Amino acid sequence: MRRRFDWPAYAEAAVTVVIITGVAWAARSLLASADLIMLYLLGIMVVAVRQGRGPSLLASVLSVAAFDFFFVSPYFTFAVSDIRYTLTFLVMFVVALLISGLTARMRAQAETARQREQRTAALYAMSRELASTRGVDALLDIAARHIAEVFSSQVVPLLPDGSRRLAPFPGVAAQFELDAGELAAAQSAYDRRQPAGHGTPDHPSTSAFYLPLLASRGPVGVIGLRPANRHVFRDPGQLHQLETFANQTALAIERAQLADEAQEVRLRIEAERLRNTLLSSVSHDLKTPLAAITGAASTLLEEGARLDPGTRQELLESVHEEAERLTRLVQNLLEMTRLESGALELRKEWHSIEEVIGAALSRLGKRLAGRSIYTRVPADLPLVTMDDVLIEQVLVNLLDNALKYTPPGSPISIIATATDRAVTVEVADRGPGLPPGEEARIFDKFYRGAAPTTRGTGLGLAICRGVLRVHGGRIWAQNLPEGGVAFLFTLPITGAPPAVDTDG
């Protein structure tokens, strides 16, 4: 690209020589010829510092000419009467050239250092943002923004798919369009791990420059640049700086990919652990009721005619009881699966909490025989939007937990209260209570209380927490001062129930 001729810089060089000539003319009676030459050399150095090599060369020529015209006899002519002045002019011109060259080189080095400092600062800023960012799309967006600013380019990041074919990353807006030729150049840079595209032997006819993003495990993608100055990357310093930016981007992308892979591994390990825990927790609880049912059924089939009616009735009741226990176990497993997978659908309608409590007590009616059940539900308790089947299951699980962990015949109380924002239900027992520090752990999956002989999988309270969480409520446990433990859960009150037409 041809550089534009900088007329103002050359005009400044000429004006500087005119000013130096004026000063020298005014002081010609006080200064010797060597002093006048030093004034011109000072002016040449100022022009070189401010404007660079070309204007300083012009200032050198004009300075020699002005000194000859105004200060060397015969005056006001370029003729020289003393041949010794020819050597003076030559030395003055050579010294002027050396000063202008050295000064221009220092100026160029200072400019290069300034640009390097700016790019180093930009690289540090990009690295700092990349270090505090997660996600490949966010990382690529940061890298594309910084590279576009530093190198005055349009940028397109490309990542490979499962078949190692490159395509623009959908999470980052492409700053220029890619046709088949551009994609071929990018794919070549990715496959060969070498720059390709404009300015390189590989696909030189393309309009963009493609640089592979190389990480420790190989290329993770390609970044395409269409700079405003098409020849910018012919400068080795610029190309090295771009490679540094690309390396930082590649390492950040690799780190994000490794984090995603590690997360997948952790999920697989956790899933395997949960599967093993579930199998070990459920195997005994499945075999026990199945063995009881099988034994009772076998006895009835083989000895049914010789058994008295009372024994037959006990065996049938045992089959029914164990079948109900097995049903509850399977239901808990299914509910936990639905909660974990997010497939639980709520059918929320306006219901009275008193009716839900009554339904739960009816389901456990036979098991509650011999227990004193105390309920307190105010008559003016507001209706609540809820899935009544799920909330009934919560109450059943809490009551079942109280039956398992409290002595036979001990009382159980159910108390409901309300505020303007929520209804709170408390299920309290008079058992041994919870060990200190277990108030939160008992809601974890497969966690069971301290009673080793108690049958169960440790899913009931976890299901309660999951159901209430999807309702927008919460559940917690606390030991009672008088002994025992209370489980409390809340259901939010949202909106107002529909009006009832009493005339209808």
Summarize the structure.
With 504 residues, this protein is an alpha+beta fold. The chain has helices at residues 7-26, 33-51, 53-71, 84-131, 136-150, 180-192, 236-303, 309-341, 353-363, 388-405, 460-470; strands at residues 153-160, 166-168, 196-197, 209-215, 218-227, 349-351, 373-376, 384-386, 412-418, 422-429, 475-479, 485-492.
- Element-level helix/strand string: HHHHHEEHEEEHHEHEEHEEHEE
The figure for the number of domains is 3
Number of strands: 12
The percent range for helix content is 40-55%
Overall SS class:
alpha+beta
Instruction: Average the pLDDT over all residues and give the rounded result.
Output: 81
Query: What is the gyration radius calculated from CA atoms?
Result: 44 Å
CATH architecture of the largest domain: 2-Layer Sandwich
Question: What's the overall geometry?
Answer: elongated
Physical arrangement of strands within the biggest beta sheet: 2-1-5-4-3
Top CATH class of the largest domain: Alpha Beta
Unreliable spans are none
Strand content: 5-15%
Distance between the termini: 89 Å
For the largest beta-sheet, the strand count, sense and barrel status come to: 5 strands, antiparallel
Total helical segments:
11
